[in-house]
Amino acid sequence: MADNFLSSVITAILAAFFFSLAATVVPYFYNVGGTVFLLLSVR
Predict the structure, then answer these.
(1) Which tens digits make up the pLDDT trace of 2-19?
(2) How many domains does the chain have?
(3) What whole-number distance in Å separates Cα of residue 41 and Cα of residue 34?
(4) Domain residues for 12?
(5) Model confidence at 1, in pLDDT bands (50, 70, 90)?
(6) How far is CA 8 from CA 14, 17, 21, 22, 33, in A?
């Protein structure tokens, strides 16, 4: 029971960490992707 609870807590922590990481990284990749797309479309 305790092991199952611990694994669910670790899963929740990893999910929250991944969500915050994605929220931080996605705008950066969106800007880079937009810049690359503009450069390719200009060429």
Answers:
(1) 789 999 999 999 999 999
(2) 1
(3) 10
(4) 1-43
(5) low
(6) 10, 14, 20, 21, 35
